[in-house]
Amino acid sequence: MVPLVLAGVFAVVAPAAWHRFDDYNGSSCPSSLAPDNIWPTGAFMSITLAFLLGGLLGRLARRPGNVGDTLALFVAQVGLTVFILAIAGAWWYETRAVANPGTVQPITYYIMCIKNTQNDWTLLVFVLGALIAGRWLWHRPGTYF
């Protein structure tokens, strides 16, 4: 079910971001970001704690239910396929943009712009990603998600 939710979020966010940033002028974007201090920052600690919390969520016990629900498995597989296709498309775009400088800007260029101006939203995305990664990496057989 999680892949289907992620695919749905991508289906809404990608067109909205495209519409919002289609004519974006990136002249104010930095070409590189200054490195953080060697000490862990609050953002780093938040992402690490979200990853660990995802690991704790991965240890939740399974509630009994119908394991053989073929429709739910089919929907989950379709969602996972759409999500993987979206990731492959993003990698293709990033590779094309890095290999041909000047034609289009790579995704990382826009991420630097967003981090430069919208630190709170960038942190939220990375915290959610770490939570999902921790839940997925520490998933225990016999649990949901």
What is the topological layout?
Blueprint: H1 2-21, H2 42-57, H3 70-99, H4 107-117, H5 119-137
Helix pairs in contact: 1-3, 2-5, 4-5
Relevant terms:
single chain, 145 residues, mainly alpha, 5 helices, 66% helix, globular
Oligomer: single chain
Count of DSSP E strands? Answer: 0
Helix percentage: 55-70%
| Uncertain stretches of 5 or more adjacent residues | none
How far the N terminus sits from the C terminus, by CA atoms, comes to: 7 Å
* Biggest sheet statistics: none
Summary of the model, kept short:
The protein has 145 residues and is an all-alpha fold.
Explain this structure.
This protein is mainly alpha-helical and 145 residues long. The protein is built from five helices and no strands. Among the domains are: 33 residues; 41 residues, no CATH class. The N and C termini lie close together (7 Å).
